[in-house]
Amino acid sequence: MIINLSDINSLVGDWMSEIRDEVVQADRMRFRRNLERLGEVTAYEISKTLMYTDKEVETPLGTANCGVIKHQPVLGTILRAGLAMHQGLVNYFDKADHAYISAYRKHNRDGSFEISLEYVSCPPLDDKVLILSDPMLATGASLVKTIDHLMSFGKPSHIHIVTAIACTIGIEYVQRNADANISIWAGDIDDELTAKGYIVPGLGDAGDLAFGTK
Ligand code: URA
């Protein structure tokens, strides 16, 4: 299932216009905050799909019945570009366990690239809901490699992929190749990729825009 967040939240189009705009992108803090806001509204939407249970709590004046999340999700993110969206998810799911995965493109001389996974830290995933943030779903190769690897920590009941821009080619690749129940939540969907695997019109390099180093 693919959900375009712009269709269900009227503010997302406004934030996407800033995230994509090369003039506004110069404000690195605003770029990160907009990604964080996307993470927050996606957390809210995903929260509607979780299971809840009643919990009695003692207030200073009596007993109240509250609906609380039955099983906390696991929040995973692909370093480093996913960190700002991850923070948005953490703002809502503040009791969740976290997974961090460093996945990057190792470019070959001929312009092709392979995905290299390095640092991976992940709690047990069996029957958990995993929410995985990566702002750019371009070819889908790093997400599929990451999901394959994370399966060694257990099979999640569902994986929610949270992304700012998803490319149709990458969406199809993930849907064909990831061995899991998956929903993809995207701020926007674009149709083109450059030969180097950048999304067009996209936004550029999300990691560099959020954290520099170019
Ligand atoms: N990663 C990015 O940061 N941008 C793209 O367009 C594709 C992958």
From TrEMBL:
Protein name stated in the entry: Uracil phosphoribosyltransferase
Matching InterPro entries: PRTase-like, PRTase_dom, PyrR_bifunctional
GO molecular function term, any single one: glycosyltransferase activity
Glycosyltransferase listed as a keyword: yes
Organism: Chitinophaga niabensis
Cross-referenced Pfam families: UPRTase
Keywords of this entry: Glycosyltransferase, Transferase
Superkingdom to which the source organism belongs: Bacteria
UniProt keyword annotation of Protein transport present: no
Span of domain Phosphoribosyltransferase: 11-213
